[in-house]
From TrEMBL:
<feature type="transmembrane region" description="Helical">
    <location>
        <begin position="284"/>
        <end position="305"/>
    </location>
</feature>
<dbReference type="InterPro" id="IPR035906">
    <property type="entry name" value="MetI-like_sf"/>
</dbReference>
<feature type="transmembrane region" description="Helical">
    <location>
        <begin position="129"/>
        <end position="157"/>
    </location>
</feature>
<dbReference type="Pfam" id="PF00528">
    <property type="entry name" value="BPD_transp_1"/>
</dbReference>
<keyword id="KW-0812">Transmembrane</keyword>
<feature type="transmembrane region" description="Helical">
    <location>
        <begin position="35"/>
        <end position="56"/>
    </location>
</feature>
<feature type="transmembrane region" description="Helical">
    <location>
        <begin position="325"/>
        <end position="348"/>
    </location>
</feature>
<keyword id="KW-1133">Transmembrane helix</keyword>
<comment type="similarity">
    <text>Belongs to the binding-protein-dependent transport system permease family.</text>
</comment>
<feature type="domain" description="ABC transmembrane type-1">
    <location>
        <begin position="130"/>
        <end position="341"/>
    </location>
</feature>
<feature type="transmembrane region" description="Helical">
    <location>
        <begin position="178"/>
        <end position="198"/>
    </location>
</feature>
<feature type="transmembrane region" description="Helical">
    <location>
        <begin position="218"/>
        <end position="239"/>
    </location>
</feature>
<dbReference type="GO" id="GO:0055085">
    <property type="term" value="P:transmembrane transport"/>
</dbReference>
<dbReference type="GO" id="GO:0005886">
    <property type="term" value="C:plasma membrane"/>
</dbReference>
<keyword id="KW-0472">Membrane</keyword>
<protein>
    <submittedName>
        <fullName>ABC transporter permease</fullName>
    </submittedName>
</protein>
<keyword id="KW-0813">Transport</keyword>
Length: 357
């Protein structure tokens, strides 16, 4: 008789064949080459951004002192020279020396002082505006991403159903210029109906403090701009997720899962949506990074005291230190967001870990 060879355990085709569940067996080694390459890339990007951040404002005509003198003609020439020396704009130093001094101050955490805000430190000025932008734009971005991704997955799963009418509606709303959408929202809900205030972050006469009244004022004033941001950005997330779902649903492992009788909910969220969401991660990371920059148009329409409006005011006043500080914060936020996106992508897609290892 022929000896029967023992049967080796066969892995489930679904667990092996999907992009999101393929496991790297064996002892994985640390991908030092990949980590070193990514670290070098991000460090070079940071250096380039800071260098451009320094030289670009100085290519503009005039400076912050000239703008200040135009508004205050009683300032003496000696005081103007002292202001230029204080801001690092004195012509006694070469541009290269100013660049080196800028790096020295930057490494010490000194972003300079803002002439536009009464010689206050730039870190203090940005620190006051940053929570408003992160709280409003960050909340709206996360909500729009979550609703758009989940909605796009459901619409893609139920292709050909009535739910697909959401795609042209949300896409149409996303094509409307944001300032126009914001003005329409103000005219309808603030002027005509009186449900929400026209602008500002809180009411007149209310002092910022941790109290129920102040929190209620912030929520009341921030609801309309937040909803406007969600409506304006929802179409892109939903359309992108729906298109990726249509691609993933044609894969073999989805057919195998359905043939094995798996519940539709498990196939949808465990296999289809988990793979379809991967391309959305990078876009979401960029959106998270640009949250710090805020939405300048939104903050101008609703008179919201965020970083976007702060950057616009600094640009008009040619306040170099404040412009550089805001650009630096935006750059760092984008880089950190991309790093987190790389980590999240590698976690969600084991093929990335296998290739890097």
């Amino acid at each position: 008789m022929t000896a029967v060879e023992p049967q080796l355990p066969v892995d489930d085709a679904l667990e092996v064949g999907t992009t999101a569940t393929t496991a790297v067996k064996g002892r994985s080694r640390v991908p030092w080459r990949f980590l070193g390459g990514r670290a070098a890339f991000y460090l070079f990007t940071l250096w380039a951004a800071i260098t451009i951040n320094f030289f670009l404002p100085r290519l503009m005509r005039g400076d912050a002192v000239d703008q200040y003198l135009a508004r205050n003609r009683t300032v003496t020439p000696e005081a103007a020279d002292a202001l230029r020396a204080l801001l690092g704009l004195d012509t006694d130093k070469s541009l290269w020396q100013q660049y080196l001094d800028y790096w020295a101050l930057l490494l010490r955490g000194d972003l300079g002082i803002s002439l536009l805000h009464g010689l206050r430190p730039v870190t203090e000025v940005i620190g006051q505006a940053l929570p408003w932008t992160v709280g409003l734009v960050g909340f709206a971005t996360i909500v729009s991403f979550a609703i758009g991704t989940v909605g796009g997955a459901i619409v893609g799963w139920r292709r050909g159903s009535r739910a697909e009418v959401l795609i042209p509606i949300t896409t149409f709303l996303s094509t409307i210029p944001y300032f126009w959408l914001g003005l329409l929202a103000i005219a309808l809900f603030s002027v005509n109906l009186g449900w929400f205030p026209i602008g500002k972050a809180y009411g007149v006469g209310i002092s910022p403090e941790f109290s129920i009244e102040f929190i209620g004022q912030v929520i009341h004033h921030g609801t309309l701009p937040a909803v406007t941001i969600i409506i304006a950005s929802l179409g892109g997330w939903m359309l992108g997720m729906r298109n990726m779902m249509l691609t993933v649903l044609d894969e073999d492992y989805i057919t195998v899962a359905q043939a094995k009788g798996m519940p539709n909910r498990r196939v949808l969220w465990r296999y289809a949506a988990r793979n379809a969401v991967l391309p959305q991660i990078q876009s979401f990371a960029l959106s998270i990074g640009f949250i710090v920059g805020g939405t300048i148009v939104m903050e101008m329409v609703f008179s919201y005291p965020g970083v976007g409006k702060l950057l616009l005011d600094a640009t008009n006043a040619k306040d170099y230190a404040l412009m550089q500080g805001v650009f630096l914060v935006i750059t760092l936020s984008v880089l950190v967001a991309n790093i987190l996106a790389d980590v999240a992508y590698a976690f969600l897609d084991p093929r990335t870990r296998q290739t890097e290892a």
